[in-house]
Description:
This protein is mainly α. The chain has helices at residues 9-20, 25-32, 36-45, 63-74, 79-86, 90-100, 108-120, 123-130, 135-146, 153-156, 158-169, 175-185, 196-204, 214-221, 242-246, 259-262.
Amino acid sequence: MIGPPRVPRERVRRFWKARLAGATIEQAATEVGVSASAGRRWVVESGGMIPCLDEPGGRYLSLAEREEIAVGWAAGLSRAEIARRLGRHRATIGRELTRNHTVRHPRPHERLQQHEQAQQARPEQAQHRRLRYRAVLAQAKAEDRARRPKPRTLATNPELAATVHDWLVEDQWSPEQISQTLHRSFPDRPEMRVSHETIYQGIYQGLYVQGRGELRRELAACLRTGRALRRPNRLPDARRARNDTRIRDKVMISDRPAEVDDRAVPGHWESQ
């Protein structure tokens, strides 16, 4: 069964750039050539927040750079020397070798021989013999870790999801309180910890709630704001003047009495 055609990522980026410039959902959808319902669906799927619009840069290692690392490491070069040749930091090369090295379990008769060689060799030589690095395998590991979407913490841990739900609905705790209490209540169980941002995303995007029925509305109502979607303050049409909310019964300086300009009455003097 063939599903609906996938919307190009560039069109989605243009939609969010238009929203960031102050356009409404309908205006942004018309600008990129999609329906208003599609634009509203993108807003709901993102939880009301504008996603990251940065272009992918040279932050991550490419396959060509990994091939250079493999050649240099096989030749016995140090991390610092490989980093100088690639124009990278040596810590980047160290993390790459640690994360994506190839594990080879030696046979029993090889272990003693390797142990004797490691004792006779210098520390950097022993490390070269322990870590084996292959560029193609390293690239495959990196791409697998970067693949999205990944299983959510609350979706893969029913006990954690139930605890968060109970504290949110029954105790009326905020996501920040839940995150901090989990850290104190389960100090020896890292799987029972979750950040407050993950809880917010789970509520707004419905990641660990089945469907969009009463349960999701109930969880959103338990938040301090009670909103079903986030409202980023950086949208021009969503900004509010601070004076309108903090100063009551304010009088503009243009409406002050005329005798103030004469400075004839004590108390009307202005000081520097």
